[in-house]
């Protein structure tokens, strides 16, 4: 398996250069298609770049989809941000910036396999996935937002636990996904935005980062009682500020 992976993703030489070129080509094509308003082609480019998920027996498809879900979420989120930046020459720079973000994800962040970097990948996928979902589909039926919010948080949690020897990883991931769906259901009836960030995205990001950091520090034997209290206090303080100082009047979808 390692030999096959090394052939698909060579680490040196001319083959490595070709691999990098094809990787960079994906964001470039997405950028060009969005600029030309060929959004379906941009979407197809992102999805077709994951063709290797299905180059195995069908029984392996779902594990492969789950393993690549965060990468797919990031790609689709970048596409949403490009589209939402609006048409016209004035917004070409914004689209180019997002294409650059996608390049950085594919070349720098995604290939990393260390515990810390995998944790950052999971948090990144959940955050921008939720941002893109609520930004582009805030007018969709609430049940769609609830289901997709739960799915994004579930696969992000599964990705987070990839490098931990956690026997209850599936249970924790399902619990986090269910909590995200429940929170989306409640807050979706009074949907608030802070700029382009929805309230469900903000709260789930704060809670996800805080709980993830506590778990990571605990697993690496660096979590002291004082640090635990600080994280919990910060999370509670942010939640209280968001709830108390939000305008809850007539903000329904």
Description:
It contains ten helices and two strands. With 253 residues, it is mostly helical. A two-stranded antiparallel sheet has the order 1-2.
Instruction: State the separation between the terminal residues, measured CA to CA.
Output: 49 Å
Series of secondary-structure elements, N-terminal to C-terminal = HHHHHHHHEEHH
As a whole number of angstroms, the C-alpha radius of gyration is: 19 Å
Q: Pick out the low-confidence regions.
A: 1-7
Whole-number count of domains: 2
Give the number of helices: 10
The total of beta strands comes to: 2
Features of the shown structure:
single chain; 253 residues; mainly alpha; globular
Question: TL;DR?
Answer:
The chain is 72% helix and 2% strand. The chain is mainly alpha-helical. The longest helix has 24 residues, at 61-84.
Write the layout of secondary structure elements.
Layout: H1 2-8, H2 13-35, H3 39-48, H4 61-84, H5 92-109, H6 115-136, H7 142-160, H8 169-187, E1 193-194, E2 197-198, H9 199-219, H10 225-244
Antiparallel strand pairs: 1-2
Helix pairs in contact: 2-3, 2-5, 3-4, 4-5, 4-6, 4-7, 6-7, 6-9, 7-8, 9-10
């Amino acid at each position: 398996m390692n030999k096959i992976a090394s052939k698909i993703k060579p680490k040196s030489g001319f083959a490595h250069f070709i691999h990098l070129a094809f990787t960079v080509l994906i964001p470039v094509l997405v950028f060009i298609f969005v600029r030309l308003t060929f959004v379906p082609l941009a979407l197809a480019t992102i999805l077709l770049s994951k063709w290797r998920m299905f180059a195995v027996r069908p029984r392996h498809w779902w594990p492969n989809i789950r393993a690549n879900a965060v990468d797919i979420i990031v790609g689709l989120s970048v596409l949403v941000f490009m589209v939402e930046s609006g048409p016209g020459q004035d917004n070409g720079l914004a689209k180019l910036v997002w294409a650059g973000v996608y390049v950085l994800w594919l070349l720098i962040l995604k290939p990393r396999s260390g515990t810390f970097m995998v944790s950052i990948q999971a948090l990144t996928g959940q955050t921008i996935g939720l941002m893109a979902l609520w930004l582009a589909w805030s007018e969709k039926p609430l049940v769609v937002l609830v289901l997709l919010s739960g799915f994004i948080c579930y696969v992000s949690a599964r990705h987070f636990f990839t490098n931990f020897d956690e026997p209850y990883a599936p249970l924790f991931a399902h619990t986090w996904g269910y909590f995200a769906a429940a929170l989306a259901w409640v807050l979706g009836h009074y949907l608030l935005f802070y700029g382009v960030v929805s309230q469900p995205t903000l709260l789930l990001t704060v809670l996800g980062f805080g709980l993830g950091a506590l778990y990571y520090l605990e697993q690496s034997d660096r979590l002291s009682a004082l640090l635990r209290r600080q994280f919990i206090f910060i999370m509670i303080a942010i939640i209280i500020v968001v709830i108390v100082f939000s305008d809850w009047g007539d903000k329904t979808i």
